[in-house]
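Example for tutorial group B:
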């Protein structure tokens, strides 16, 4: 498990024996986002100093510094073959990086606000921005192919279903919009959160959407319709959510630097990880976690 923090560190844990492995002290003034390679050999950290830094997770050394953005890096994705990285920044641009040459390959301009999230769909890139739009880019043609303008406030997160047929975006307008990617149309709009939706994920089976919000709650939506259940409310704002590959657990990060692990189907919280010293005590009796990451 790898995490980043505003204290400029990247922390790694071994969840098989519940031990802290290492802290990489970056040469930046704060790490804002991170992407892990498919082979788990390296990670890329996006920083407040407008750089992307590549770290070897075997040696814990910095492999490269990618420069080009003019402001804070907000989001990063790595392609399935680990050959390209795609980053979004406060400078309103999306950039594609060649990870073999450690060089900038392309730049996409069109958004008029900071880029808040990116998803990769074959040779398409889906981006969301504080300009209230969702854009689909053709990376081969280097063009903006379609713009969704249905959100009424900043768009904060984006995800694509495993079957690649749907996308879901969360917004400061408190809603989630589900998009049909084959028709470029809005399939449905989900309302219920009382504040901005910061994280959204499809379940691996595709029948559910899990969302988290600044309103301190996590919701589960069934079949992309307004039928939902509130999984839990918390004392701090919720920032992001991830669904494990076996479709059983939701990993939720909170503004207070805690990570919550939930069995979202059974509505049961399995663990809370709140710091280096507490991890072993908090999850040592949860052996089922060891094979999920």
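The residue assignment follows.
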């Amino acid at each position: 498990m790898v995490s980043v923090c505003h204290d400029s560190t990247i922390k790694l844990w071994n969840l098989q024996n519940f031990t802290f492995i290492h802290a990489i002290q970056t040469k930046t003034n704060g790490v804002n986002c991170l992407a892990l390679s498919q082979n788990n050999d390296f990670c890329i950290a996006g920083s407040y100093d407008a750089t992307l830094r590549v770290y070897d997770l075997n040696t814990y050394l910095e492999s490269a510094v990618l420069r080009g953005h003019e402001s804070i890096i907000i989001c990063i994705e790595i392609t399935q073959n680990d050959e390209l990285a795609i980053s979004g920044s406060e400078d309103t641009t999306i950039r594609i990086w060649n990870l073999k040459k450690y060089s900038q390959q392309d730049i996409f301009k069109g958004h008029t606000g900071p880029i808040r999230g990116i998803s990769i769909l074959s040779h398409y890139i889906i981006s969301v921005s504080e300009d209230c739009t969702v854009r689909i880019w053709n990376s081969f043609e280097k063009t903006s192919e379609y713009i969704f303008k249905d959100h009424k406030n900043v768009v904060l997160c984006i995800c694509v279903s495993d079957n690649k047929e749907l996308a879901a975006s969360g917004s400061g307008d408190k809603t989630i919009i589900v998009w049909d990617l084959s028709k470029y149309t809005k399939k449905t709009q989900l309302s219920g959160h009382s504040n901005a939706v910061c994280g959204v994920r499809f379940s691996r089976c595709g029948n559910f959407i899990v969302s988290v919000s600044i309103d301190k709650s996590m919701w589960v939506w069934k079949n992309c319709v307004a039928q939902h259940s509130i999984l839990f409310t918390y004392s701090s704002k919720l920032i992001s959510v991830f669904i494990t590959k076996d479709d059983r657990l939701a990993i939720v990060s909170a503004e207070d630097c805690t990570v919550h692990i939930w069995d979202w189907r059974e509505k049961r919280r399995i663990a809370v990880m709140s710091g280096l010293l507490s991890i072993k005590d908090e999850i040592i009796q949860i052996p089922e976690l060891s094979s999920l990451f």
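The two ends are 7 Å apart (CA to CA). Compare this with the pattern of hydrophobic and polar residues in the output above.
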